[in-house]
Every structure is written in C-alpha cells, then in structure tokens.
Amino acid sequence: MSKNSLDNLIENMSPELHSGDFVFVKVQGLAGIEPSEIIGFFREKEGITLILPKGSADLRGLSYGLVCSWITLNVVSDLQDVGLTAAFSNALAEEHISCNVIAGFNHDHIFIPKQDAEKALRTLIELPQK
C-alpha cells in the first residue's frame, strides 16, 4: 500500500538538473575507479553497469554510448509508492524523451539524453499543472 498519494508526490517532486555529463558503462571489475566517482552501480550476469561522470569514463578509456543529463526528483518517495514513475515517464514519452530511471531509497533519479535536458526539466516542472 502506498503511503503517499500520487497527486502529492507529483505536486512536490521539485526536479533538479545536475550539472555535468553522465554515462553508463559496463565493466567486469572496479579496478581504479574510486567509489566517490560512481553515481550508480548495478550487477548483472553480463557484468557491472556503472553510471559515471563522463570525464571519469574518458579518463579510463571506458566505452559508452549515450551521454546523459541527470535529474533528481527532490520529493521523498517510498519504494512502495504507486504511479510516480509511470506519471513522469509517460509525460517524458509524450515529448519523445527517453529516460532511464534509478530509484534510490529516498528519491527517483532520471537519466535522459543530454540534448533533451532542458525540455525534460520543463516537462517535469509542468507535470503538476496537467
């Protein structure tokens, strides 16, 4: 059962665009990568996916594709809350903006193509008015 109403979450999500460029890389180990550089970490059977600042990946010659911007929704959401991810991802999809969502313990983090950063931020800011 959700502890927060969807309307309350959307009204208070306060999206924040972080400065910098971010990339997803696949590695087999963490040799030479400082934990303080890692934005996100996920282990899959094919290897470890890291989200890093682009400069950190470039420094180590790591391959990546899409260069992303990072938006944090500054509303404290519960991992059991229902509908927030669907609401913002649908709003972004309507604007033809892809998103990769990472749910942290307290906040949702959205990685979107760098060229769509400002449009995505506007879309999220305007979502409560829809």
Molecular structure report:
It is a single chain. This protein is of the alpha+beta class. It has one domain (6-129): VC0802-like (2-Layer Sandwich), CATH 3.30.2130. Helices cover 25% and strands 29% of the residues. It contains four helices and seven strands; from the N terminus they run αββββαβαββα. It has helices spanning 6-11, 54-59, 84-94, 117-126; strands spanning 15-17, 22-27, 40-44, 47-53, 67-73, 100-103, 108-113. Strands 1, 2, 3, 4, 5, 6 and 7 form a seven-stranded antiparallel beta sheet that branches. The longest helix has 11 residues, at 84-94. The radius of gyration is 15 Å and the shape is globular. The mean pLDDT is 88.
CATH topology: VC0802-like
What value does the Rg take, in angstroms?
A: 15 Å
String of helices and strands = HEEEEHEHEEH
Q: What does the average pLDDT come to?
A: 88
List keywords for this structure.
single chain, 130 residues, alpha+beta, VC0802-like, 7-stranded antiparallel sheet
